[in-house]
Amino acid sequence: MSTDKVSVHGSWASRWVFILAATGSAVGLGSIWKFPYMVGVYGGGAFVLMFLACIALIGVPVMLAETLIGRRARQSPANALKVLALEAGHSGKWSWGAFAGMVTALLILSFYSVVGGWSLDYIIDMGRGDFQGVTPDQVGAYFGNVIADPWRLTLWHTIFMLLSAVVIAKGVVAGLERSLRIMMPLLFVMILVLLGYSMTTGHFMEGVHFMFDFHPEKVLDGLLPAMGHAFFSLSVGVGSIMIYGAYMPKNSSISGTIVGVALLDTFVSLVAGLALFPIVFAAGLNPSEGPGLMFVSLPFAFGNVAFGQLMGVVFFVLVAIAAWSSAISLLEPMVAYLVERTKVSRAWVTFWLAFTCWFVGLGTVFSFNIWKEAKFFVNEGGLFHLYQWGAAGGLDFFGVIDFFTSRIMLPLGGLCFVVFAGWVMGREAVRDELSIRSPVLFALSLFLMRYVAPIGILVVFAAQLWK
To answer: At what angle do helices 15-26 and 178-198 cross, to 10 degrees?
Structure first.
């Protein structure tokens, strides 16, 4: 079996660039926004402990699987699974699992771009001082006015998508690598600046106790949410890590590198919590606010603490960079696939894919305003309706896309990749690509990929469907 394949798209200059790229893919809104509010909702230290365990047992094995598949084949996810399956004597139809993952990435990007656009909007709003001295009700009304304006949301959605497309169009070295070398260090610096500021609020230890005080009775409450977030926070299941693995140098250790990425992603999540909770406490807010933490609670907090206007700008720039680095990783797998299959230039492929995601994203934009009465999958009085205008229940357009991608396609994509690496590729191919010298560590890695991670993913999948 050939192991010296070369990607037609180029390669990273070093393993550290791959670490920056993979960390950029993983560190997104999930780390900066979702992790802190989930810590608040599910009991602090008990949730953090469960999250760390699930990262090790589920997240890392799936990342290992995606990366070794990508580097072994040096192609886009769909082509990688097809080539490696045929080389191992199995059906090339495994590629359909990867193709579904790449489509899922585009669907996620369609609404991710809208939320990323909100963060760009809030940079301007925070810098103008719009939140200085406001009340919580005023901030809530402000956010309501933002999402009620389809033109405003479309403008920022368009800008965010263009920023992502420009990076991808320039290619692996000139676009991805050059931008990530700037974005990721800047992200780390900004989150440390925010952490330093939190230490001056007088509520830092209150935030530390909130995050790390362990309450055994809350372990079961946070177990399933921690499993789900550990899986989703590392950006696995859609092929982003796989395509980045295809650009990874051959002499780099996959296992050591992936552990490094997982540690960096976890570090950012923990520091985000330590940076944000003291600010929330300083403003006298409830740390268990939930999803409204980023766009309602925190703007109020920044508007009512010393130097809050400046720190608020730093925070939303941080959020925008995190969202941007994740967005480009969602677009890259399908761009690489179409360049390989059609030989059309990367710039044109990127343009049309970005336009498609932008167009689908308009459905998310309108879900908050002119289409907010449009509901899908409505169960009313025992009668099921696929679509109904003005129904009390059901899901809006954004809700449908979010449910389909996060609760169904992401877990299935991760399951496909980890089963493929653990069972289809073959033991020797996996051993050769991982290059783990210790027989014990290799056996442990294979055991996690073959048994622990798939079972964990199935549990997450069932829990997501039955929420």
So the answer is: 60
How far apart (Å, rounded) are the C-alpha atoms in residues 252 and 223?
34
Helical spans, DSSP H, in 283-303: 297-302
Angle, to 10 degrees, between the axis of helix 346-367 and the axis of helix 95-128? 60
Contacts with 74 (C-beta within 8 Å, 6 or more apart), sequence order: 5, 6, 7, 80, 246
> Where are the chain's structural domains?
15-465
Tokens at residue 161, please?
A: 């998508």
> Which string of b and e fits 447-462 if b means at least 16 CB within 10 Å?
ebbbebbbebbebbbe
Provide the token pair at 191: 């989150």
Query: In degrees rounded to 5, what are phi and psi of residue 368?
Result: -95, 0
CA distance 39 to 273: 8
Of the candidates 56, 48, 101, the one whose C-alpha atom is nearest the C-alpha of residue 78 is 101
Structure tokens at 435: 């290059």
**In whole angstroms, how far apart are CA 178 and each of 170, 171, 333, 349?**
10, 10, 18, 20
d(CA 160, CA 166): 10
Partners of 376 in beta bridges: 387, 395
Look at the domain 15-465 and name its fold: Amino acid/polyamine transporter I (1.20.1740)
For the segment 59-87, what is each residue's pLDDT rounded down to a tens digit?
Answer: 999 999 999 999 999 999 999 999 999 99
Q: Is the separation of the CB atoms in 411 and 237 below 8 Å?
A: yes
Element (H, E) at 136: helix 136-147
Nearest of 281, 321, 310 to residue 297 by alpha carbon: 281
pLDDT of residue 326 exceeding 60, the answer is yes
The string of DSSP codes covering 184-246 is HHHHHHHHHHHHHHHTTSS-HHHHHHHHH---GGGHHHHHHHHHHHHHHHTT-SSSHHHHHHH
Taking residue 143's Cβ as centre, other Cβ atoms within 10 Å add up to 17
Assigned token pair, 20: 């920056």
Average pLDDT, rounded, for the chain: 89
Looking at the chain, the number of H-run helices and the number of E-run strands are: 22, 2
- Angle of CA points 393, 152, 354, to nearest 5°: 85
User: Across the strands, what pairs with 388?
Assistant: 375
Task: Tally Cβ neighbours within 10 Å of residue 395.
Answer: 18
Give the Cα separation of 154 and 163 in Å (integer): 14
How much is the pTM?
Answer: 0.92
Smallest Cα–Cα separation from 202: which of 305, 312, 302? 305
